[in-house]
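Before going further, learn to read the protein records used in this course. Taken together, the tokens spell out the fold as the letters spell out the chain. A record is reproduced here so that you can trace the correspondence yourselves:

***
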Amino acid sequence: MGKGIEYATIAELQGLIRGKEVTPVEVVQALLARIDKYDASLHAFVTLTPDVALERASAAEARLARGEPLGPLDGIPYGLKDVINTAGIRTTGQSKILEHNVPQHDAFVEARLKAAGGVLLGKLTTYEFAHGGPSWDLPWAPAMNPWKKGYLPGGTSSGPGAAVAAGFLPAAVGTDTGGSIRMPAASCGIVGVKPTYGLVSRQGVLPNTFSFDACGPLTRTVEDAAILLGAMAGYDADDISSVERPPMVYTRDLNAGVAGVRIGWVRGWYDGDPSCHPDIPDAIERALQALSSAGAIVEEVELSDLLTYQDCKTTISITEMFSAYEHEFRTRPQDFGTMFRNKVLPGALIRAEDYFQALRQRTWLCDELARAFREFDILASAGWMTVAEPAKPDKLDKFLRPPNITTPFNIGGQPAMNIPCGFSREGLPISLQLAARNFDEALMFRVGHCYQTLTDWHTRWPTEGLLQ
């Protein structure tokens, strides 16, 4: 599949639009045609918004013609995970509970993207309330992975991951509570970023777990993720977790290289684990060797095992999530999907003592990560333990699964990013996870961008599966 508009990056589209080689309307029309051709098998979109997209694209085109100053995303199409409120546009949370919900106000992040000149193509598939999936008993089918027919794109930002990988749009916004941006990024061979907790407002985003929820970008390149995060981030007085910080241009130091950057390799989180795909350890080692050859200082570091982080996160998460939807559980439990209901109802049984002990454990784990970041600038590991997995509609879900390698940085709140670093023997993407100190997204992007200048994994796109 040759590269055209469908796989142009944000940075490339900015150049094409501002150079008047293509118009925003032409970009939208090309992407809508592609979505119409292929999304029937991928189910990446819950709600497509062609009229909104064409109206915003026309407005961007008019600003360009008048020579007005352009926003950082002027004319750039994007999609939103369907837990992010959009005024006048249905926001379902992928649940029958909100099947006909049309918010009156935009979420803060949507207002930011709109003000930056972005062009909304639609709302993207997720798991029910960004938890407990994939499910086949909801009003919408789960998204599928364009890399291989019948395989899943990972969750819970499943539609955003599939849409970016399929060439439906260059950018999407997802949410991440325990890895829900980074898992689909890993499974779909794209870039996924969980920003520092509090950097991006969650106002107007359907809750999962207040203590961990974060909004972040899914894009094709690290550069694009830096551009998108710069447009998304900002202080919001209506979100009590929002942190007031000066605006950042995350692309400023992308090309500064990695000489002298200290990388702590958390090899013990995945290497030797029976649930880890056999091709992943070698791919991660090769990625870190590439960064070492570019001047980074790579040393192994040991941290608490993943199960310790996962137990802490799960105890807090299901307690807070049951609390968020307690009224609906009491008044219309039959309208939840089976998987969501089975996963979240146990939150009603968590004792206050257990929740309190999990909060104490979280403090200890945060201290552990803070100590590691005093020694290292970046922590690196596998981005996910497996490659994309087949969809199994008849398979019963388990309440407890192998721990997520992404969860520690939800516990600690640090920024973390998954970027493609190879392919498995099945031809499915493998991902590297990089994390940085709180609010040091700029360094994390710098290291990831350096890796992408040394490799071409991020330039490879599905050639089969999508077309079947």
Observations:
- The longest strand covers residues 416-423.
